[in-house]
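User: Can you recover a sequence for this backbone? Please restate the input before giving your answer.

Assistant: Of course. Working from this structure:
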């Protein structure tokens, strides 16, 4: 018999074993792939400036760019949200191997608890990361979690976008982009976005600023790739 976590059915012992086996297999493959890639990262000082200011950043990006983001931000102690279902948990086991910490939950299940865990992480000085349209989309339609966290904690959102010169596109709701070996990936990080509070108008202004920053990041990443072709 299985129990439940935040209203979701807990994984069986067999499923938990499968998540560990998947992570053990996939992690070295991902690392091997990423080491062949030429990385062009612009704006990383924005992340470091936020850390030095004592306001841990909220790294925000689209779910379809989870692979390059996970590699560039590895081993920084970032806390991320992962769904409690099977897919979410094997992904969690993989990213833990790259130095991330995991708060269990998602915008569809356990989201409030997970957001509160992320809020506590920020209050304890740890940066957090959020896929804005995760875990199930719609693609590129942001959920309110990142903006709410910024308004509730005073920490800035640091958004980014990544584009690869050559890549595979996964047939999934988010059209995940997987860079091909020996490709180039441009990752554009934007200036921090501060949200004044959690009132509806403040949240709306924060959401609008975030979308504008993501559009700039995508344009910059695409321009960087176009320049090398």
């Amino acid at each position: 018999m299985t129990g439940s976590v935040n209203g979701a059915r807990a994984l069986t012992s067999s499923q938990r074993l499968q998540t560990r086996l998947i992570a053990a297999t996939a992690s070295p493959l991902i690392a091997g792939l990423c080491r062949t890639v030429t990385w062009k990262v612009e704006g990383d000082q924005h992340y470091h400036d936020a850390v030095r200011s004592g306001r841990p950043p909220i790294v925000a990006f689209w779910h379809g760019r989870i692979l390059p983001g996970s590699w560039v931000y590895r081993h920084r102690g970032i806390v991320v949200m992962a769904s409690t279902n099977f897919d979410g948990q094997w992904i969690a086991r993989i990213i833990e191997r790259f130095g991330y910490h995991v708060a269990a939950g998602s915008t569809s299940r356990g989201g409030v608890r997970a957001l509160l865990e992320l809020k506590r992480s920020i209050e304890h000085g740890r940066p957090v990361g959020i896929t804005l349209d995760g875990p199930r989309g719609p693609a590129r339609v942001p959920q309110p979690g990142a903006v709410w966290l910024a308004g509730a904690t005073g920490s800035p959102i640091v958004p980014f976008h990544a584009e690869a010169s050559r890549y595979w596109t996964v047939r999934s709701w988010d059209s995940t982009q997987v860079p091909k070996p020996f490709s180039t990936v441009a990752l554009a990080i934007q200036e921090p976005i501060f949200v004044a509070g959690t009132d509806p108008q403040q949240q709306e202004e924060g959401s609008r600023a975030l979308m504008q920053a993501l559009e700039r990041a995508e344009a910059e990443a695409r321009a960087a790739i176009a320049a090398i072709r």
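That completes the design. The domain at 4-228 is CATH 3.40.1130 (Glycerol-3-phosphate (1)-acyltransferase).
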